[in-house]
Automatic annotation (TrEMBL):
Entry GO CC: extracellular region
Organism: Rousettus aegyptiacus
Function: In the male reproductive tract, binds to sperm heads where it modulates sperm capacitance by inhibiting calcium uptake and nitrogen oxide (NO) production.
This protein's record includes keyword Lipid biosynthesis: no
Superkingdom of origin organism: Eukaryota
Keywords, ordered alphabetically: Disulfide bond, Protease inhibitor, Secreted, Serine protease inhibitor, Signal
Name of the protein this chain belongs to: Serine protease inhibitor Kazal-type 1
GO BP terms in the entry: spermatid development
C-alpha cells in the first residue's frame, strides 16, 4: 500500500515538473523572432535586458543575440525574456 502511494506521489510530482518546464520554455511555436532590423550593428547598447535564445544561451540583450545570428548565420529565436 505504501509503495502504491509513493508511486502516485512520484507520478504527480513528475507531471507538475513537466508542466512547469512546458510553461517556462513552451513549444517552439511560442518562440519569437528577434527584431534585428532595429539595431545598427556591429555595435549594441550596453543595457542589461537578458533574453534566452533557442540555443539555450543567455544573451545580455536582444541586440547581442542579433549579432550572434549575423555572425554564425543561425536562426536563433527568443524563448523568453530573462536568463535561461
Amino acid at each position: 500500500m505504501a509503495a502504491a502511494a509513493l508511486s502516485l506521489v512520484l507520478l504527480l510530482l513528475a507531471r507538475v515538473w513537466a508542466a512547469s518546464m512546458h510553461s517556462q520554455f513552451g513549444p517552439s511555436a511560442e518562440y519569437r523572432t528577434p527584431n534585428c532590423d532595429q539595431y545598427k550593428l556591429p555595435g549594441c547598447p550596453r543595457d542589461f535586458n537578458p533574453v534566452c535564445g533557442s540555443d539555450m544561451s543567455t544573451y545580455p540583450n536582444e541586440c547581442t543575440l542579433c549579432m550572434k545570428i549575423r555572425e554564425d548565420s543561425h536562426d536563433i529565436k527568443i524563448i523568453r525574456s530573462g536568463p535561461c
